[in-house]
Write a structure and sequence with these properties.
Layout lengths: L1 H9 L4 H21 L3 H23 L1 H7 L3 H8 L1 H22 L4 H8 L1 H19 L3 H7 L1 H29 L5 H16 L4 H7 L3 H4 L26 E3 L4 E3 L15
Antiparallel strand pairs: 1-2
Helix pairs in contact: 2-3, 2-6, 3-6, 4-5, 4-11, 6-8, 7-8, 8-10, 10-11
């Protein structure tokens, strides 16, 4: 019984980030031990962390669309833990950045010379989004930012990062090696899935209700337990009393006259 509860706790919430970080560290150590800490080994680490970042990001990116397309226990788990998958992606991508810097002897100047100013600018903006999205994945920082700005930041960041992954893998799959083809196909398929199973207008209307207005604390969308805020309550017909979280709000009759709460009970 204890092992079951422990396994359940490890696969839910913030422990996912800890497990992902530990697995990333073990992977990097194993690759360095096998291929060495020189340039060939560092390049292997760069490619491996790029793959882990891609997998974690695509799970967070397509979680809500996968849930709408296939409402199963697995997709429900994705929605519930999307926040933590996103933070795990940020951890993986920071390790990826450290490996790139190690390859160029921790010199941004050498990195800019080798990769080009355009690649450095595009990649740098991607990391700005990664860090900003990870920093606002906590309840306090998300509340400080506000729901509208939070949604704009995470929506823009998700699509920008999807674009970076796609332009990194699709041209390579066509011109360099078929080994990049599965990654390119997955990236395109996830975008097609998001378009085909985008939220309906009713879902957009429900997102306008903030967690505070809904009477409960709720996690942010891309890295959160649910993809939409709680649905608005259905209004009763005129002459009935509406029960809210804090008070009894009297409704008005057809002539606009108010009634006391006790008259309709």
């Amino acid at each position: 019984m204890r092992s079951h509860s422990t396994r359940y706790a490890v696969t839910r919430g913030w422990p996912i980030v800890g497990v992902a970080t530990a697995m990333l560290a073990l992977m990097v150590l194993a690759l360095v031990a096998q291929f060495g800490a020189a340039e060939p080994g560092i390049r292997v680490v760069i490619r491996a962390t790029a793959r882990t970042s891609f997998a974690l990001f695509m799970l967070a990116f397509a979680a809500s669309s996968l849930r709408r397309a296939w409402p199963t226990d697995a997709t429900a788990w994705l929605i519930e833990n999307r926040r933590y998958l996103g933070v795990s992606f940020a951890v993986s991508h920071v390790v990826h950045l450290l490996a790139i810097l190690a390859l160029y002897d921790w010199s941004l100047r050498r990195l800019a010379v080798k990769t080009g100013a355009a690649a450095l600018l595009l990649g740098g903006l991607g990391y700005v989004f990664v860090l900003a999205m990870a920093a606002t994945s906590f309840d306090r920082t998300a509340a400080w930012l506000g729901p509208r700005r939070w949604r704009r930041l995470h929506t823009a960041g998700m699509y920008y990062l999807w674009t970076i992954f796609t332009i990194s893998y699709v041209p390579r799959a066509i011109m360099e090696s078929p080994a990049y083809a599965p990654l390119a196909v997955v990236a395109i398929a996830m975008m097609v899935l998001r378009i085909a199973h985008r939220p309906r207008r009713a879902d957009h209307a429900r997102r306008r209700v903030t967690p505070a207005q809904a009477g409960r604390r709720e996690s942010p969308r891309w890295l959160s337990r649910s993809s939409t805020y709680s649905p608005a309550r259905r209004l009763p017909p005129p002459g009935r009393t509406t029960f809210t979280d804090r008070a009894i709000v009297p409704r008005r009759d057809a002539r606009g006259r108010g009634e006391s709460p006790h008259q309709s009970l």
